[in-house]
Structures are given as structure tokens and as C-alpha cells.
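SEQUENCE WITH STRUCTURE:
===
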Amino acid sequence: MTRPSLRIDFVSDVVCPWCAIGLASLEIALRKVEGEIDVDLHVQPFELNPQLGPEGEDAVAHLRAKYGIDEAQVAANQERIRARGAELGFVFDMARRRHVYNTFDAHRLLHWAGDAGHQLDLKRALLRAYFTDGRNVADHDTLVEIAAGVGLPADRARAILAGDEFAAEVRTVEQFFQQAGITGVPATVIERKHLISGGQPPEVFEQALRQIAAEKGSA
């Protein structure tokens, strides 16, 4: 019997903590259905802060202004995120994550990495670099180092970042998902029609995958 195959588009940003949680949770679910369901996973771009310059902004001040909350509320939210991450095996070090950055160049590299077969590896590495190590994911030298660390050629990564290669492609994909109704991330889209919003627990992803695969198999 042929195993069902599902396309998954994981729409997210690399400076979104709930995206790190959502991806870790999704990957746990994927391991649970491994051997039963074949999955074609694509990481898709979404920019939380497209207006930011390369220098970024102070993270706490940014969150206070964006959500209208005080420092105590920011700290409480960050502790909740840290605890959720720990449950899933993802390390958040909020003391090191002191800035928010523009992520367009990171998304350009992720687009290229998709063609090169290292997209998911690069996505994981960017999330760890930002949330665990507090690195500047807008800095070109940092991005080249991260790309090289997952097996991508450093010279090619540097050349992409030096120009505007893949900029049009990234904007086209961003617009596609925005026009499809995606206004917040993470957004996990299965078979281009089933949406799971937010950093859901692994059980939610697993149940959805099994149900959609069963429906596809019986169609």
C-alpha cells in the first residue's frame, strides 16, 4: 500500500519565538508519523519587522512598544516562552537575545538553501543562532558563517548577500501567503488548504497530519 504524502508549508520568521516553538513541535510530530506518512516540508518567509534597519532595535523596548506592555509583562512572556521551548528541547536564552533585527537577507538565504537541499538545516541554525546564542541574524558575516555551518558554500552565500539575488522571489512568496490570509506566524499550511496557527503542541500537529493523510488516502 502506498504511503500518503503531504506537502507542508511552514510560514515563519527567524526572530519569532513562537516559530521556534512551532517548528520544534512540528518536528516531534513528524518523527511520530515517520514511516506512515511521507512529508514534503517547505520553509516559507514572513517578516515580523520589515521596517527595521540593519542595526535593529532593543528587544524589550521593541516588544513594549509593539504590544503596549510593561517590562514585567515582557519578562513573564519570555519566561513562558523559555519554559515551552525547554519542554520541546529548544533553548531560549533571553538574556542574550537583546535585539530584534530585519530578517529579509536571512530569508533570501533560506530561499537559496531550499534549492540546495539545506533549507531546514539552515532554518534550525538561524533560530538557534538568534534565540540561543543571541547573534545578529542581519549581519552578513554572521549569516555566511551560519550558512557554511550547515554545509552551504560560504562564497556563494556571501555573493548572494552582496547583491539582491532572490529578493524578488522572497517578496513574491511573502505576498502569496499574505494574500492567502496569513497575517501572523507561525502558520503551518498542509496541502495548501489546511491551516494550523501558532506554536501548537506536538499532539495537535500529529492528529492533523494523521487526519489529513487519512482523508487524502480515501479520496
User: Anything to note?
Assistant: The chain has one domain: 5-218. DSSP finds nine helices and six strands in the chain. Residues 5-218 form a domain with the Glutaredoxin fold (CATH 3.40.30.10).
